Amino acid sequence: MPRAALTRGRIERAYNKKARPRTFQPGDLVLKKRNMALSDPRGKFAPSYEGPYVVKKAFSGGAIILADMDGEEFRSPINSDSVIKYHV
Fold first, then answer.
1. Quick check: 71 and 13 in contact, CB under 8 A?
2. The organism sits in which domain of life (predicted)?
3. pLDDT, tens digit, for every residue of 42-65?
């Protein structure tokens, strides 16, 4: 077996050992990661997440559709990697 394949397998096993699938159900409360490209006078002290938002629909590929607390939905789906669960 070539060395590159052995290294690739080792890296894959190390990643899979710690990676946890994220599942969201409709009605879950989540926080969405803020876009840091926006200029904020607080700089690195600005909050990293905004919300809470409600999950309206969850797709099998990991995308979710969010709505704000008033029920207004976002136009495009968001990847589940950019949200975290909001615990009340």
1. no
2. Eukaryota
3. 888 888 999 899 999 999 888 999
